[in-house]
């Protein structure tokens, strides 16, 4: 009988995500790790499980080139966590409908994306941006919520 492979703990996933995004800032100039923490907390508050919370910490890592797709594939994470991260990773030139479809087709991914959109659309965060950017992003996030069937 063999033991199941050990997966990274949430503390280890958080540390990895924070290190990978070290020095990065969001559009408002805040440390990027604040966004990752808010999404992870949003997933937890919405009833997400440990695999979804791990995916929340890593949700932008591949898209932002903070970690490679190869790192993700080889990481000591559950297949479900990896699939969620890949589902919420935007691909160059991908239409929003295809992106939303992949999220909806991946078990557990919608909750992570919902928490991501909620934090991205937070009026306090948006208030730090110029009016044109704020308007563009508000419309973008509302469009994605609609494609995902979120209120």
Question: Short description, anyone?
Answer:
By secondary structure, the chain is mainly α. The chain contains nine helices and no strands.
Please describe the topology of this protein.
Elements: H1 10-20, H2 32-45, H3 50-58, H4 69-74, H5 79-87, H6 96-105, H7 109-120, H8 123-127, H9 131-148
Helix pairs in contact: 1-3, 2-3, 2-7, 3-5, 3-7, 7-9
On the 0 to 100 scale, the average pLDDT is: 95
Q: What does the largest sheet look like?
A: none
| Overall strand count | 0
Secondary-structure element order, as H and E? Answer: HHHHHHHHH
Computed CA radius of gyration, to the nearest angstrom: 15 Å
Percentage of residues in helical conformation: 55-70%
Spatial shape = globular
Low-confidence stretches: none
Instruction: Output the structural class.
Output: mainly alpha
N-to-C span? 47 Å
Strand percent estimate: under 5%
Count of helical stretches: 9
Task: Write out key terms for the chains shown.
mainly alpha, 62% helix
Description:
- There is one protein chain.
- This protein is mostly helical and 151 residues long.
- 62% of the residues lie in helices and 0% in strands.
- It contains 9 helices and no strands.
- It is globular, with a radius of gyration of 15 Å.
- It starts with 9 loop residues before the first helix and ends with a helix.
């Amino acid at each position: 009988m063999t033991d199941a492979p050990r997966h990274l703990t949430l503390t280890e996933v958080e540390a990895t995500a924070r290190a990978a995004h070290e020095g990065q800032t969001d559009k408002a100039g805040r440390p990027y790790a604040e966004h990752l923490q808010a999404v992870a907390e949003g997933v937890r508050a919405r009833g997400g499980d440990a695999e979804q919370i791990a995916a929340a910490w890593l949700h932008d890592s591949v898209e932002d080139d903070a970690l490679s797709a190869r790192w993700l594939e080889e990481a000591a994470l559950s297949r479900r966590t990896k699939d969620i991260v890949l589902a919420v990773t935007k691909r160059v030139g991908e239409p929003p409908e295809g992106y939303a479809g992949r999220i909806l087709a991946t078990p557990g991914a919608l909750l992570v994306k919902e928490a991501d959109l909620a934090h991205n659309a937070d009026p306090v965060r948006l208030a730090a941006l110029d009016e044109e950017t704020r308007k563009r992003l508000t419309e973008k996030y509302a469009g994605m919520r609609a494609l995902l069937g979120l209120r």
